[in-house]
Structure formats: structure tokens, C-alpha cells
Known about the structure:
It contains 10 helices and 8 strands. It is of the alpha/beta class.
Amino acid sequence: MKTLLxxxxxxxxxxxxxxxxxxxxxxxxxHAIPDLTAEGLVRVMDRLGVRSILVSHxxxxxxxxxxxxxEVLTAMHAFPxxxxxxxxxxxxxxxTRAEMEWCAAHGFxxxxxxxxxxxxxxxxVYAGALxxxxxRRMPVLLHAWGAASDFAAIRExxxxxxxxxxxxxxxxxxxxxAECIRLAREVPNAYLDLAYSQGPRGLVERxxxxxxxxxxxxxxxxxxxxxxxxxxxxxxxxxxxxxKRKILSExxxxxxxxxxx
Length: 261
Ligand SMILES: [Zn+2]
């Protein structure tokens, strides 16, 4: 029987794996992206055999979060089950619960927060949105780049909202590999997201060896990063096919099954 890497190398679709990409994006940003459409996103997923991608809108970094959520909703409706939504909220509005409730009622799957707006993840303004995520047992993706404050925030929130699953984005960046492993080992509802434009040799293997394959999740950052390159880091890693299946599919499916819609 062929290994997953052999199958990928021969250009075979891995659709039978039910791969879920837990870190995707949607919408225009500052730099050129060749294809901004939902169709383009699904086309690359089809080539690889990726079942679903969770996307947040790039307006997570601006006050136009609601418009962003509406665009994501349109994509969710165009490709049901393939494109899933992370809600984004704007903290300056002062109440993040209302937007989060709107998103949850419209079938969004999770919540994505980005610190580029200057608000700490632990700021009380996010309590409304995080409470809804906790009530609905959703995944919460936190943008991070290995800063000590990111680790402190995710530890505090994971304890305060124990029903939500917290994903620490871009694991291994900022020289914080060991701290990522400690986080995943010590916090039951914290997971390590692999989206990273670089592919430091052995990073995926070291995260798995330290944290366990159950705590590592495939995320591509597509369409910022190439999904083919990002999935290649997992498929080409020196891991067993069983471990790769956990990272690409099983861990994510377990998190998504918990979500109350
Ligand atoms: Zn991202």
C-alpha cells in the first residue's frame, strides 16, 4: 500500500482522508493575491483533496468586520461544508457579543481574533464573543508570533473558557518552539496550528514529539500562503501516516464535532 507521501507525490487526491485546514483567510488585503474568489480556494482544495477550510475575513484587522463576515457567509453558502467561517469582531465597537451571536446564528463555526488592532486577547471587550464561543464549544484561533504575552493570554482564556478549543497560530515562530510544546502539554484545550511561511527542518516532527500528534493541527494560512507548500510540510515530515492523519484530519474533526450549531 502506498504511503500518504507517495500518494501526494504522484498527484493523487487525498480526499478519503477528510482533511480540514483550520487556518484560512478570505478577502482582499494589502498585497496582491492572484485569486480572491471562493471558487479559486475550492479549486486548490480539490486538487489536494482537502475537505474543508475554516476562513476568517481579512477585515478582522479593520472596523469593517461585519462586512467581512457577510462576505464569508456568502462563500459558506456557495460551498456548504467546504468553506466554514471564523467570525471576526471589532473591539472598538465595545460589544463583541452581538456580532458573534449574529455569526453563530448564521452558521459560523468558530472565532478568530487578531492582535493587530492593539487590543489584548484578554481585554474585557472580547468577553462577549468568547462567551458565545465557549457556550457553543467552538474553536478559537488566536493570531500569535511566539510572544510571551500570546502564551499568557491563551493560558488565561483557555482556563476561563474551558469548552472552547484554543488554537495557537503559527506555532514555532519567534523562537518559541519549547514554549509551544509546554503550552500544548499543560493546557488541555490548547492546540498548535502549523501555518508558517517558512519550513524549518524538523519543526513539525519536534512539535509532535513534544506535544503529541493529538495537539497539532494543519493550518495553511491560504490564500496568503500556498496550501500545497503548507500541506507538503506535514506530508513530507518524518512521521507515521497515523500521526499525519491526526494532524490533517482526525484532531480537527474531533474539535468540529463538539461545535453546537
Ligand atoms: Zn493567518
